[in-house]
Every structure is written in structure tokens, then in C-alpha cells.
Amino acid sequence: MSRFFWLVRREVWEHKAIWVAPAIVIACMILLVMTGNVHLGEMNGESPRMFIAELTRNQQVGLLLMVYAGLSLVVFMVMGVIGFFYALDSLYADRRDRSVLFWKSLPLSDAETVLSKFSVAIVVIPLVAAAAAMVAQFVVALGISAKLSLAGLPADVIWQPEVILGGIAVALLWCVTAILWYAPVIGYLMLASAWAPRGPFLWAVLPPVGIWVLERMVMHSEYVGDFITQRLFGMYSVLRSGGDSAEREVSGGKVGDRLERITEFDVAGALKEFYSSPELWLGVLAAAALLAAAMWVRRYRDETA
Q1: pLDDT at 182
Q2: For a designed S-S bond to 250, which of 90, 154, 258, 268 qualifies (C-beta 3.0 to 4.6 A apart)?
Q3: Reported confidence tier of residue 302, pLDDT bands at 50, 70, 90
Q4: Distance of alpha carbon 195 from alpha carbon 207, whole angstroms
Q5: Which residues does residue 46 pair with via DSSP β-bridges, in sequence order?
Q6: Other Cβ atoms closer than 10 A to 141
Q7: Phi, then psi, of 43 in degrees rounded to 5
Q8: Is there a contact between 51 and 153 (Cβ–Cβ < 8 Å)?
Q9: Band of the pLDDT at 255, cuts 50, 70, 90?
Q10: In terms of pTM, does the model score above 0.70?
């Protein structure tokens, strides 16, 4: 276990983008707060003052959790890009600089090496994203609190336990969902990284895109494209679908009705639907098979290829 832990630490040390990227996002949030550009926006022309004033306490809590969920979504999207390129380069980089010769001379199995890199991509990066999301929530909460106070509106709701704990729960729920949902994507990217003689990005992207284009040209269907889109962006469609649904239901209604409908959207409940979907658990099984293939390829792949 200690050996595996040090393998994970080595990966984090060598890939500074894992902690630099969330630091940049947080710095941008601080900049927005300092310039006074953090607000809850408008709704069909209503000013933020009217927007907040017509909310009950429960609606205010619901709105803040919705804002925190969207904020966490932004952080996870940024870290998703970091995870994509990390997994794509994880096994190829060892062969590119021939450091794989050194690592294979050590009493380390291919399974330990592959699993340590997989753990960084699918566990460490989402955990860093969750921590960064919590910090970003705190920074934005300071900005919203200051802006409400300056507008003469009560800001104590920002610091209610249900809001603080709810924001933390949303970030952790995004983290767990991302780990399970993107496990097969990371497994596929690591297999491409272990196999590619050069240009792992092309080896990973061209085959599925080629099948997608070929299916559309020959069969005039887009099953492959829909599958790829769902696997890449299915998790991020939760807030969008909920927001679109709420907006359709309340368009043209009174301000109070619009606020009530939108703040009733249950983010946690929408995310929990993932755990009952067969696509999620089939993806986990596919990730295990892809990791096993990556281990086999790394064992027999010529490190000079």
C-alpha cells in the first residue's frame, strides 16, 4: 500500500496542472468578487434586488444550492480537460522518454503502474476538483453576501448550515458521479496511451470519430455519435435539462411562480438517477476490461516503439 501511495504521489508531483488549474479557477473567482461581478443574475428582466426579495427562505436556500451546483460544474469541466490529457499521456510518456526501462527494472508490476495512474485520473483529479469547488463556493458566497448587504438585503442565509453543508454535498456528489461515469473513458484513453506508437491523441480520437462518420454516411444514423456524446456530456446535462424544463414550465408566468418552480429543482435527486441507470454500471465493467487490456499492452509493448 505504501508503494502504491508513493506511485500516486509521484504522478501528482510530475503533473503540476492537477493543482495549478484549480488554483487558476479560484483566482478567477477571487478576481470576480473583488471587481463586484458576482451576482445571481436576472430573470426575465427582473433586477437582482427584486429577484432575491420575492424569495422565501427555503427558495433562497434552493437557489444558492443551484448556483453552487453550477459553480461545481464549471470546476469539474476544467478538471475534466486536465484528466483527459493526463490519461492520454500517462502510459505513452514513459515510452516516449524511455523511463519505462527504469520503472520496469524496479519491483513494480504493470498492474501497480497502470492502477496508480488510473487512480490519479479517476480519483485524485475529481477529489481535487471537489475541493476546488468548495473553495470557489466559499469565495462566491463572500461576494454574494457582500453584494446583498450593500443592497440592503439580508445576507445571513448565505451562511446557514443547510446552505454550507448542501454546497459541500453537491460538490462531493459531483465527485462520486464523475468517478463512476468517466471510468470507461479514462480506461479507453489509457489503453490508447499504452498502444499508440506515437500521437496518442490521434489513436484515441480518430477511430471513434471515423466510425461515427462512416455510420452516418453509410447507414444514415448516429447511434455511435449519440453514444459518444452521452458518455462525454451526459453528466453535465443534469443541470441544463433541469433548468430548461423549469424555464419552459414558468415562461410567461408570474415572478413568484417562476422563482418557486426553478428553486424546487432537486439537483441531488437528478444526479442520483445516474446510479440506477444500466449505462453507469456497464461502463464500470467496461472500464475494468479496458484497464486489463492496458496492463497487457504495457507488459508486451516494445518500449522503443
Answers
A1: 92
A2: 258
A3: low
A4: 13
A5: 43
A6: 22
A7: -140, 105
A8: no
A9: very low
A10: yes
Distance between CA atoms of residues 232 and 125, nearest Å: 17
Q: Which uninterrupted H or E stretch holds 56?
A: none
Cell (9 digits) for 16: 503540476
- Return the SS3 of 79: helix
CB-side exposure of 276: number of CA atoms within 13 Å?
5
| H-run or E-run covering 122 | none
Rounded to whole angstroms, the Cα distance separating 108 from 94 reads 14
Q: Is the pLDDT of residue 250 over 50?
A: no
The residues, ordered by sequence, that sit 6+ positions from 2 with a Cβ below 8 Å of its Cβ are none
Contact 181, 274 (CB under 8 A): yes
* Burial of 14 (C-beta count, 10 Å sphere; 0-12/13-18/19+): exposed
- As a three-state string, the secondary structure of 81-109 is HHHHHHHHHHCHHHHHCCCHHHHHHCCCC
Which has more pLDDT, 95 or 48? 95
Can you read off the three cell numbers belonging to residue 168?
459541500
Average pLDDT over residues 180-190: 93
| Residue 206, C-alpha cell as written in the block | 480518430
CB 286 within 8 A of CB 185: no
Q: Are 183 and 284 in contact (CB under 8 A)?
A: yes
CA–CA gap between residue 21 and residue 24 (Å, rounded): 5
Q: What is the mean pLDDT of residues 168-185?
A: 89
Residues ≥6 apart with Cβ < 8 Å to 174: 69, 72, 73, 76, 126, 129, 130, 133, 271
- Kindly tell me the number of DSSP H helices and DSSP E strands found in the chain: 16, 0
Please tell me whether residue 15 adopts helix, strand or coil conformation.
Answer: coil
Q: 3-state DSSP: the chain helix, strand, coil percent, rounded to 5? A: 80, 0, 20
